[in-house]
Amino acid sequence: MKNLFIALEGIDGSGKSTQAKLLAEKLTEAGHNVYTTFEPTGGMIGSVLRNILKGTIKADHRTIAGLFLADRLDHLLNEDTGLVKKMKEGYTVITDRYYFSSYAYHGAHMDMDWVIAANKMCADILKPSLTLFIDISPTTAMHRINTNRASTELFENRKSLEAIREKYFEAFTKLKHDESIFITNGDRPAENVAEELWVKVSSVL
Ligand code: ADP
User: Fold this and answer.
1) Bridging pattern class, strands 34-38 and 92-96
2) Helix and strand tally (H, E) in the chain?
3) Does 51 have pLDDT greater than 90?
4) Using CA atoms in the order 109, 113, 114, 116, what is the torsion angle rounded to 10 degrees?
5) How far is the CA of 35 from the centre of ligand 1 (A)?
6) What's the rounded mean pLDDT across residues 127-147?
7) What is the edge-to-edge ordering of all strands in the sheet holding 92-96?
8) Which label site among 50, 75, 127, 189 has the fewest CB atoms less than 10 Å from its CB?
9) Does residue 172 carry a pLDDT above 90?
10) Does residue 17 have its Cβ closer than 6 Å to ligand 1?
11) Cα of 12 to ligand 1 centre, how many Å?
12) Domain-by-domain residue ranges, the chain?
């Protein structure tokens, strides 16, 4: 059985972690050994990033972009938990965020082409079999974030999310010949979104 590398993308609150879980269940039922993961990672660089997003450490957006790249390389290359190793071991990997998050989130603050060039190394190491973008309106996203969480993070305001959503689409246009991207409407019950994603993922199995 072919193992896949699937990246889930979307603005904060779009339902990525919900869909990662549902997709993992379906792939497991279909006989895959599934490894689900996320960025920023739970590793050393990822924890610095979490503190920056929470606001306990301050950093310039260019510094943040560099740290995300370093965290992503560790995500791929870590000797124990790295995704290159997981793929070699035959796991189907689902990641909640990958390099399109950098294009969208950093691209809102600096030249997106630089961010893409900097992440080329990651694309050369491991390119997603599929990038699944869950599209929701920033208004819905803010509603979900405010309803479900006690505090908000760095990018979690409607204006930011609007800019980030637009940058995602800009990145998809730029890379449409290099990447396999599927866009779904996330403004529906989670089960409906999951079903559509499963139809798409099944088609590449
Ligand atoms: P993300 O990982 O993209 O930030 P989550 O999966 O954590 O998003 O979802 C954000 C919040 O919205 C959670 O409280 C989740 O239960 C809820 N949620 C997820 N998908 C949907 C959906 N399709 N409709 C309504 N609420 C949803």
Assistant:
1) parallel
2) 10, 5
3) yes
4) 100
5) 20
6) 95
7) 34-38, 92-96, 5-9, 130-135, 181-185
8) 189
9) yes
10) yes
11) 9
12) 5-38+91-204
Buried b (16+ CB within 10 A) or exposed e, 131-169: bbbbbbbbebbbeebeeeeeeeeebbeeebbbbbbebbe
> What's the pTM?
0.97
Give residue 1's pLDDT: 80
What is the arithmetic mean of pLDDT over 103-122? 96
Written as six digits, the tokens of 63 are 């510094």
Percent of the chain whose pLDDT exceeds 90:
92
Reported as a pLDDT band with limits 50, 70 and 90, residue 55 is very high
- Coil, helix or strand at residue 156: coil
Contact yes or no for 19/193 (Cβ under 8 A)? yes
Pick from 68, 66, 60, 64: which is nearest to 39 by CA?
Answer: 68
pLDDT of residue 154: 82
Place of tokens 């006690």: 150
Q: Tell which atom from ligand 1 comes closest to the C-alpha of 188.
A: 23
Res 38: pLDDT: 98
CA-nearest residue for atom 5, ligand 1, is: 15
Question: How far, CA to CA in Å, does 175 sit from each of 104, 112, 113, 168, 205?
Answer: 13, 12, 11, 11, 23
Please name the fold of domain 5-38+91-204: Rossmann fold (3.40.50)
